[in-house]
Structure formats: structure tokens, C-alpha cells
Design a protein that fits this description.
Elements: E1 2-4, E2 10-12, E3 14-18, H1 21-26, E4 36-46, E5 61-66, E6 72-79, E7 92-98, E8 113-115
Parallel strand pairs: 3-4
Antiparallel strand pairs: 1-2, 1-8, 4-7, 5-6, 5-7
Length: 119
């Protein structure tokens, strides 16, 4: 489960993790329907390495960017397929990709986020 530690709201019940180069590279490409949050664990906190693209995506997604402390540094709702590049406003260590319309009012900038399989 992915949840907001600040307000106690559950963001999404199911989570998966992308910790290897290949799992981060594949991400959600070619997946149409999913019911989980995919948490990307980047090797280090960076603005440029946290940039994402939506090539080969089949659906829009919501995205949360977190720094090393797991604080929200950027939020994107409804990022559309085939968007070439989106870089977070601040450096990020974790990226959470979610089904569209998942975030709603559950998360705001600087919130502390947690998940079941903490690292």
C-alpha cells in the first residue's frame, strides 16, 4: 500500500517496485490497465535522471516525484501517452506512477509518502 504519512490517506492499495535498470526501463510501457502504483527507485537523487517519457504508453497516468526523504517535490495528474519528456521541478530519488485520477486530493507538495515494502 502507498499512503500519505501527513494526512493518513491511502493513495493506492497495491504497489510494485522498479529497482533494477531493466525494470525501470520497462516501467508501464505497453500496459493498458493496471491497479497498482509502480515505485521507481533511482540510484541517486537527480532532476535530469528523474525525467520520464510516455513513449509506448497506452494510458494517461498520475505521477508523484519524491526526494530522498520521500517528500513530494512534484505532482503530475493525467500525463498523456506519447508525451516526450517531463522533468520534475526538483531533484527526485523516487517516482511513483499511478493509474489516472488516483491522486485527486490525497497528496500535495512537501507531503511525506510511505509504502508497505519500505527500503
Amino acid at each position: 500500500m502507498i499512503y500519505n504519512r501527513e494526512n493518513g490517506k491511502k493513495i493506492i492499495e497495491n504497489e510494485r517496485h522498479a529497482k533494477t535498470f531493466f525494470s525501470r526501463f520497462k516501467g508501464l510501457m505497453l500496459i493498458k490497465n493496471f491497479d497498482y502504483g509502480l515505485i521507481f527507485h533511482l540510484p541517486n537523487e537527480s532532476k535530469s535522471r528523474a525525467a520520464i517519457h510516455m513513449l509506448f504508453m497506452r494510458t494517461a497516468i498520475d505521477v508523484i516525484f519524491l526526494n530522498e526523504e520521500k517528500r513530494v517535490v512534484d505532482i503530475v495528474k493525467g500525463l498523456k501517452p506519447w508525451t516526450l519528456n517531463y522533468a520534475p521541478k526538483e531533484a527526485a530519488k523516487y517516482i511513483i506512477e499511478l493509474p489516472p485520477a488516483t491522486i485527486q486530493d490525497k497528496v500535495k507538495l512537501n507531503d511525506l509518502i510511505g509504502w508497505s515494502q519500505e527500503t
